[in-house]
């Protein structure tokens, strides 16, 4: 580019110099032409009074001189004009080459610009597609987030409602449990009272048995051995009864909830439908026998009846002891 610019400057300077020479030559030729015209006009005026022959010869000589001068001026003008034209033509060619180079450069740049624009357009389309995909993904994500928030809100509301229902059910169950505990405590207290009353009745029956055994011992000397055996049995039953009473007093009310009434009924041999068993009064314990109303002839009958009574009472005591032991085992298992 610098070389072409320097060449253009050189050609422009040469063309300007050639143009200046042509203008100088043209000015000189114009001055010479004017001088020649003036000289010819002066000669024509001067030749009017002279001899025609002589004036014709001088005129032809002057005309030939003028023609030679004009030919020289024309040659000078032609040479300078050709030189100026060549310089301008070279300058024009240089300008054309420069314009062609600039045009080709501009075309290359335009082609590069078109390729860059096409690449930018493709990149813009790609970015637009990516932006559309990102927008769709963002919209989808927002929709999913809203749906998730809606589901979470619904689950939270359902959980709150379920929690409220559970709290209400818990309050109701707690109230019913309190009522059941109060009812159970009342029933347990009533059964404990019934059990204590049964224990008292059993103790009274045992004391009555002891008194009957003592009376029979004093009245029937022949039955001393059997009475001592029965006393030991009664003592054993008394010890079992006391141990059972102690266990009943120490047992929690919750364990007596289902077994208190049955134990009381089993200990006394009674049920809600059956009244207590009446006390058996035989000849050994009747007031008439105690006061000596029995005759000597009925001694054998007295012994037999006393033996039957004591056997019956012993069987009842053994059955009661068996039931008491069974109930004690049930309490221990519980």
Concise description?
By secondary structure, the protein is mainly alpha-helical. Helices cover 86% and strands 0% of the residues. Helix 2 (52-219) packs antiparallel against helix 3, helix 2 packs parallel to helix 4 (260-268) and helix 3 (224-250) packs parallel to helix 6.
Textual characterization of the structure:
The chain has helices at residues 2-46, 52-219, 224-250, 260-268, 287-290, 299-333. Helices cover 86% and strands 0% of the residues. With 334 residues, the protein is an all-alpha fold.
**What share of the residues lie within helices?**
over 70%
> What is the number of beta strands?
0
Quickly give the structural class. Answer: mainly alpha
Order of helices and strands: HHHHHH
Output the radius of gyration: 80 Å
Estimate nothing, just give the exact number of structural domains.
2
Q: Terminal Cα separation, in Å?
A: 119 Å
**Count of DSSP H/I helices:** 6
β-strand amount? under 5%
Largest sheet: none
List keywords for this structure.
rod-shaped, 2 domains, 334 residues, mainly alpha, coiled coil
Reconstruct the topology from this structure.
Elements: H1 2-46, H2 52-219, H3 224-250, H4 260-268, H5 287-290, H6 299-333
């Amino acid at each position: 580019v610098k070389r072409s610019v320097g060449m253009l400057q050189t050609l422009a300077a040469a063309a300007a110099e050639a143009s200046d020479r042509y203008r100088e030559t043209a000015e000189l030729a114009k001055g010479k032409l004017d001088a020649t015209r003036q000289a010819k006009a002066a000669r024509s005026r001067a030749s009017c009074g002279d001899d025609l022959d002589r004036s014709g010869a001088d005129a032809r000589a002057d005309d030939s001189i003028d023609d030679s001068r004009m030919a020289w001026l024309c040659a000078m003008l032609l040479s300078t004009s050709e030189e100026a034209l060549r310089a301008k033509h070279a300058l024009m060619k240089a300008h054309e080459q420069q314009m062609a180079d600039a045009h080709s450069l501009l075309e290359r740049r335009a082609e590069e610009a078109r390729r860059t624009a096409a690449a930018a357009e493709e990149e813009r389309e790609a970015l637009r597609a990516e932006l559309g995909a990102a927008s769709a993904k963002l919209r989808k994500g927002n929709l999913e987030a809203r749906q998730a928030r809606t589901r979470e809100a619904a689950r939270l509301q359902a959980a709150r409602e379920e929690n409220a229902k559970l709290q209400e059910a818990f309050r109701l169950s707690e109230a019913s449990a309190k009522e059941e505990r109060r009812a159970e405590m009342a029933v347990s207290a009533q059964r404990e009272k019934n059990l204590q009353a049964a224990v008292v009745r059993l103790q009274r029956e045992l004391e009555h048995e002891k008194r009957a055994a003592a009376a029979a011992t004093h009245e029937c000397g022949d039955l001393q051995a059997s009475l001592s055996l029965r006393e030991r049995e009664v003592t054993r039953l008394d010890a079992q009864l006391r141990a059972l009473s102690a266990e009943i007093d120490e047992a929690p009310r919750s364990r007596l909830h289902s077994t208190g009434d049955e134990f009381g009924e089993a200990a006394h041999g009674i049920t809600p439908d059956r009244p207590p068993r009446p006390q058996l009064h035989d000849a050994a314990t009747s007031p008439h026998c105690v006061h000596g109303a029995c005759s000597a002839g009925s001694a054998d009958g007295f012994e037999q009846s006393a033996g039957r009574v004591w056997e019956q009472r012993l069987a009842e005591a053994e059955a009661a002891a068996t039931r008491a032991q069974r109930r004690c085992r049930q309490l221990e298992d519980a």
